[in-house]
Amino acid sequence: MIALPLDLAEARDPAALREFLDQTRRRAEADRHDWLVSISVAVDALDPLAVLESIFEPNERHFYVERPDEAAALAGADAVTHFAAEGPGRFAACQRFIDDTLAHAVAVGAVDEPFGGPHFFAAFTFEPEAEAGAPFPSASVFVPRWQVGTRAGRTVAVANLAIGAGTRVEEVADRVWRAHAKFTSFDYGSIAVEAPEGAGAAPVAEAPSDGEGEAYMDAVSAALADIRAGRYEKIVLSRTRDLVRCDRGSGVPPLEGKDKPRNPPAPGWGGQGSAATFQPLNVLNALRQRFADCFAFSVANGKGQSFIGASPERLLEVRQGRLRTEALAGSARRGLGASEDAAMAAGLARDEKELHEHRLVVESIVTELRALGLTPEYPAKPGLRRFANVQHLHTAIGAKLPESVRLLDVAARLHPTPAVGGAPRAAALGRIAQLERSPRGLYAGALGWIDARGDGELLVGLRSALIDGGRARLFAGAGIVAGSDPRRELAETELKFRAVRDALG
To answer: Which of 301, 294, 252, 299 is nearest to 276 (CA)?
Structure first.
C-alpha cells in the first residue's frame, strides 16, 4: 500500500482531493486495475455505534466490534470491495484477497492513528463449509465504504473508495468532502431511536421446545459415552433457541425455509399474528451496556440478516509484532452475594473436571503455536475471568510473531479451539455434526478485523443470536468431558442463553 501526505483536516478546499483522485484514476487506467483509495481524518471523539446507527441500512453490510473496558470500538458500513471463500483453504484465500487489494491501494491522512487506514472486516463460520442457503459463507471479507474507530479517546473517520478508469472524480470528491464535514461536526440529535420496552415495543415470544432440552441432554449422554470409551477427550455441544418478536396480543409465526432447525418443533405452535421487527443495533447496544467486559459485536451480510452477540473470548490479537491469545474454558455461575461468589470461584479453581477441560484448550493452543515456529509464553496455573453472569478459568498466552507468520496463518491453525470444538479436534468436529440439531454458522466462528499493517484482532462468536427481521435464533454451548453431568451442562447453556434473551426484551 502506498501512503501519501495529504491531510484533509488541513485542506481549505477540495481542490487537492480532486487532483489526488484524478492522479489515482490515471494510475488505474494505466494498470487496467481498480485502485482502493483510503482517506483517514482525525476527528473529535465519536461513538462509532452512534455513527453506525445514523447510516444504518438493513440491506448493506456492516461490522461492529467494541471492548468497552479497553475504550476501543470500530464500525464499518457498506462495502467498497468484498470477497467470499469456502473450504479448508478459506483463511489462505482471504489473505490472498487482502494482499491483492493492498497491492493496488493508496492511503492518505491520519493513517498512523489508531484505526487509521483501510481495515478488512472478516467473518469465518465454525464449519469450513457453509450449508446451501446459509446466511453467511464459510469465509467473508470486506472493506467498508465508511469506517469510524476510537481507541483511548482518539477517533479516526475513514472513507474508502474504488477508483477505476471511468470514475467521475468530481462527484466522488464532493461526496467525500460532505462526509468529512459530517464527521467533523457529527449531530447525535439526528438519530432516531426505537421506543424502549414498556412504551409500545413488541414482546418476544419463544417457540415451544419440542423436548429440545431433553434432546440436548441425550446428546450430552451420547458424547459422554464416547468419551468414556476413549474416542474423545472433549466434545463441545451447542443448542439453539428460536424467538419471534410479535405485535402485542398476536400469535407467533413459525420459522420457515432455511431458518428451520434440522429437527424443527412440532407443527401447531404460534398463530397468524403479524410479526414486528428486531432493531439489530438496539439489541447490540443493550448487550454492550449489560456486558461491558465482553466483546460486543454485530456482523451484517447485506441481505437483512445480522449476527450479534457479547463474547467473552478473544481468539487472537496481533499488535506490533506480538501475538496475544487465551484459553477460556471451565466455568461456574456467579454467586448471589460476595461470599457465595467467592465460594463458587474457589470451587471452580479446585474442580478437576473443569481444570481438565481447561488444560485441553491450553495444550491445543500451545501445540498449534509451536507448529508455526512460535515460542508461547503462559503461566503454569490458570486464573479467573469474571463476567456479569458467569466466571471462567483463564490462561493468557503470548508470543513474538515473525514477519513470515501473519494473523490469518495463526487463525487457520487455532480455529476452532477445543474451547468451542473439542479434542482430538478433527474427530470431535465430526461427532458434533452428528449430535447437534442445527448448523452453527457464525456461532463459535472467528470474527474481527485486519489492518494494512497486518495488525488485527479476531474474537470467538459466543453468547450470540442471528437476527432476521422479527426472528432471532439464539446459540449457547458447553464443553463435555469425563465427569460432565447432562443436567449441569443444560443449566450452563440456560445461563448463557439468558444473556442474549434479556437483551432481546
So the answer is: 252
Q: Residue 64: what residue type?
A: Y
pLDDT at 7: 63
Residues 40 and 108 sit within 8 Å (Cβ to Cβ): yes
Residues recorded for the chain:
505
Q: pLDDT tens-digit profile of 213-266? A: 888 999 999 999 999 999 888 899 999 988 887 655 444 444 444 444 444 433
Instruction: For residue 25, give the H/E element and its range.
Output: helix 15-31
Q: 37 with 26: CB under 8 angstroms?
A: no
User: What one-character DSSP code corresponds to residue 130?
Assistant: P
Partners of 307 in beta bridges: 299, 466
**How many other C-beta atoms can be found within 10 angstroms of the C-beta atom of residue 17?**
22
Say what the pLDDT of residue 257 is: 40
Is pTM beyond 0.90? Reply is no
Residue 193: the pLDDT is 45
For 105, phi and psi rounded to 5 degrees? -135, 150
The helix/strand/coil state of 240 is: strand
Q: Which of 40, 305, 33, 318 is nearest to 154 (CA)?
A: 40
Q: Using CA atoms, how far apart are residues 225 and 239, in angstroms rounded to an integer?
A: 19
**pLDDT score of 190:** 53
How would DSSP label each residue in 31-61? HTS-EEEEEEEEES---HHHHHHHH--TTSE
Record the cell numbers describing residue 357, joined without a space: 477441560
Q: Which residues of the chain have pLDDT under 50?
A: 191-200, 249-273
- Strand order of the β-sheet with 456-460 is 81-85, 139-143, 119-124, 446-451, 456-460, 314-319, 322-333, 390-400, 383-386
The residues, any chain, with a CB within 8 Å of residue 410's CB and separated by 6 or more, are 316, 318, 323, 325, 369, 372, 401
Using alpha carbons only, what angle is made at residue 239 by residues 236 and 245, rounded to the nearest 5 degrees? 150
Kindly give the residue spans of alpha helices, DSSP state H, lying in 338-485.
338-350, 352-371, 407-414, 425-435
Please report the DSSP string for 82-121 in residue order: EEEE-STTHHHHHHHHHHHHHHTEEEEESTTSTT-S-EEE
